[in-house]
Design brief:
Blueprint (H helix, E strand, L loop, with lengths): L6 H18 L2 H29 L1 H4 L6 H9 L7 H11 L4 E7 L4 E6 L13 H15 L5 E4 L24
Parallel strand pairs: 2-3
Antiparallel strand pairs: 1-2
Helix pairs in contact: 1-2, 4-6, 5-6
Amino acid sequence: MSAVTDAREAGARVEEVLDRLAEAGDRRACAAAEELVRVLMDFYGAGLARIVERAGAGPLEPVLGDELVASLLSLHGLHPEDVETRIGRALDAAGGAVEVTGFDAGTGVLRVRPRAAASGGCGCGSDPGAVARPLEDALACFAPEVTEVLTEPAPAPAPPLLQIGVRPPSPVRVP
């Protein structure tokens, strides 16, 4: 069995195992498995909290950009950076093709729009679906407070600058 290094994948695998136990019909085994998950989460969370407390945010700086470390710290409410900084890290990790236009901490809704440079040379823009999945994955690691991403349309490109100049004088024709 390979190591799980992605927060979404780990959560999906835990849910899958719990669902298989529930399908087996043994409610006591299912309850015991859920309790085991909670106990392990509490145990690892307490250990991480102690590391963060004793090391401080400074020594953690080199690993805060790592998706696995960020997801563990965020999962346990220990990440030393504020949510806006972590959203920025997620945007960078996802390729930086979008910019934040707003974040509502109360609802968890993040509003983004494609960057001007993210549009294709033809003026047709990039495929929002190609950006959505990597962004959602990065947000799950760095900023799980984001519960929904709304993509706003890209701003209309500025019209091209029309250069108007003075025609050079034409030679005078003498009949």
